[in-house]
Hints:
Number of strands: 17
Radius of gyration: 21 Å
Strand content: 25-35%
Distance between the termini: 28 Å
Helix content: 10-25%
Structural class: alpha+beta
Amino acid sequence: MVQKPAIRKVGLARALSKLGHCSRSQGFTLIHDGRVRLNDRIIRDAEFPVNLWKDRIDVDGERLVQTEKIYLMLNKPHGIVTTASDEKGRETVYSLLPKDLPFLSPVGRLDKASEGVLLLTNDSEWAALITDPITHLDKTYHVQVGDIASEEMLDKMRKGIKVKDGETLRMKRVREIRRGGRNSWLEVILDEGKNRQIRRMLDALNVKVLRLVRVAIGPFELGDLAKGDSRILTTEEKKALDGAMLQRKEPLDP
């Protein structure tokens, strides 16, 4: 007898996010406030298991349905935070997005002071693959530092640097791409992103970061998109990213 595959369920708050209604944290609030019904019952447990293909979810009396998968790129400016809402009242990336889109989650993060390529999507499984260390998808950054880069400094960055918390961090590749009278621009490639990795490494070397711009994720490049602007990825760009992840995963498969 052939067994049916197990149905994968998700928590109710996560279901609201996957359906493109709101962020997971916003979902917790909606559920706690009794504004969410699951199969005509008010549910106040944010982790209550939901089958997205069978269960009916209503928020404030409006039924939620599966939305089209959207893959969007934003050129994040300096000074904008990568959150749905900010307790300090700072401007978020969502203020820059078109108003007619469903809720999109950031694929990874860029800190407030960093700029460049930020992907957003309502496809949570695809987002998890992009950020999963197992894919080792290259992220390319251009970093302006407040010193003239020496070969000794670059070599230390390649070999690994022990940062303040005792962790040793490494860059996959780093090279100087241009220099001025008092500073240099570096091209840095990471194949797994740890929290503020580039800034922490340079801080350990007493090197000041003047600008940090993510210019590519895998084969997908920032191009000439203006700061603060966004656009939907083309079918070819999405396929290229998928192909890059597949290529990186294959050697790790049994």
